[in-house]
Specification:
Blueprint (H helix, E strand, L loop, with lengths): L7 E8 L3 H12 L4 E5 L6 H4 L31 H15 L3 E3 L3 E7 L2 E6 L2 E10 L6 E2 L13 E4 L14 E4 L3 H10 L5 E4 L13 H17 L5 H11 L10 H6 L2 E4 L3 E5 L2 E4 L9 E4 L3 E2 L5 E2 L11 E2 L2 E2 L5 E3 L16 H10 L13
Parallel strand pairs: 1-2, 1-6, 2-3, 4-16, 6-19, 8-14, 9-10, 9-14, 10-11
Antiparallel strand pairs: 4-5, 5-6, 7-15, 12-13, 17-18
Helix pairs in contact: 1-8
């Protein structure tokens, strides 16, 4: 009987094969560091394909490429979520990156020699681990959503695809950040639509407007350098962005007005007679609700805990301070505003990989 070869071992394991994980893999390959990527999805890019149909990236194609492979679209156009998903899949094929799809990491435990990762298909060992699981982990809805009348259809933005999912009648969109504005704008053309929630400002022009074509080089500098944890304004903005409160980038207040979206700054705080109630006491009679209330991070599967206030890892530009050899990518405001956009993935990944310790001769790899 053949002996059990034991857990598969690598110098580095990357958890997640989205844009951040693939950028890290590219840099690890360039440094000739043995590694593998574990992706829970059955197909690379499915996180992008599963978003709402009208989604377009907030940066033009010229800024959406990962290292070494241009994005296959007009540089001035804004790719759809499906195009981005297909690009990531092509990126893996183009560079032959070592992605293991359909492998969900259930538990990560620190060991004397590094880390052990438990999955349904077996255990993995690594000296160092890069967490590139992204910010869209646990869809969040307020507890009072369960008290609403059962006749009201409720969807989280993670499950929203297009207006045809919703019944006829007024719709309430809760959450006035990026996805909330996008979805309310789309719904406003098909039915009475109300968008509620505090605003967090907006760009002086839409990211895909004519003015933005000339301003994008400057905007890129602002997003990557001025709005960073190295500046006072960046440090002030970071908690707001991590909480899901970014400024409006594409569909701004004037655009929402033109789409006949009723904009109310009050928050939805409870239920009265089965209907949603706002902070000022108003009760809204609606047929459906789309909760654009964001996501909550989930790092409960990591031992020992690495989270701080807000549920995000305690880290310094992607280096987890409390757990040597552990790194994180794809986190909102990891280093700058651009960290949550595709255009920031490559720079953040390059920095983290530069901190990876070089493999030692004693390191072994089991196929």
């Amino acid at each position: 009987m053949a002996s059990d070869p034991g857990p598969e071992q690598h110098d580095v394991i990357v958890v997640g094969a989205g844009q951040s994980g693939l950028a890290a893999s590219h840099h690890l390959s360039a440094a000739d560091i043995d590694h593998v990527l574990l992706e829970r999805g059955k197909r690379v890019g499915d996180v992008w394909r599963s978003r709402y149909d009208s989604l377009r990236l907030y940066s033009p194609a010229r800024y959406d490429a990962l290292p070494g492979l241009p994005f296959p679209a007009d540089p001035l156009t804004f790719p759809t979520g499906r195009q981005m998903g297909d690009y990531l899949e092509d990126y893996v094929r183009h560079f032959g990156l070592p992605v293991r799809a359909g492998v969900a990491v259930q538990h990560l435990r620190r060991t004397p020699d590094g880390y052990e990762l438990s999955t349904e298909v077996g255990a993995y060992l690594a000296r160092q681990v890069i967490l590139a699981t992204g910010p869209f982990q646990q869809p969040y809805m307020p507890a009072f959503a369960a008290e609403l009348d059962v006749s009201i259809m409720q969807l989280h933005s993670a499950d929203y695809r297009d207006p045809d999912q919703l019944p006829d009648g007024p719709v309430l969109v809760v959450g006035a950040s990026h996805s909330g504005a996008d979805i309310a704008f789309e719904l406003g053309t098909t039915r009475p639509t109300i968008l509620v929630g505090h605003s967090h400002g907006q760009l002086p022009f839409s990211v895909d407007g004519r003015a933005a074509r000339y301003a994008w080089p400057l905007m890129r500098v602002v997003m990557t350098s001025l709005l960073s944890l190295g500046t006072p304004i960046g440090r002030k903005m970071a908690p707001q962005v991590r909480g899901g409160g970014g400024p409006l980038l594409r569909h701004r207040k004037a655009d929402l007005e033109r789409a006949h979206v009723e904009r109310i700054e009050e928050r939805a705080v409870g239920v009265s007679d089965g209907m949603p109630r706002l902070a000022d006491g108003r009760v809204l009679d609606v047929a459906s609700i789309v909760w654009c209330t964001g996501f909550r991070p989930d790092f409960s599967w990591i031992e020992p805990s690495i989270v701080q206030d807000g549920g995000w890892p305690a880290q310094e530009r992607g280096v987890v301070t409390a757990s040597p050899g552990l790194y994180v990518l794809g986190m909102p405001f990891l280093h700058s505003f651009a960290s949550m956009l595709v255009l920031g993935a490559a720079a953040d990944a390059a920095y983290v990989v530069s901190k990876i310790r070089a493999p030692t001769p004693a390191t072994t790899t089991a196929a």
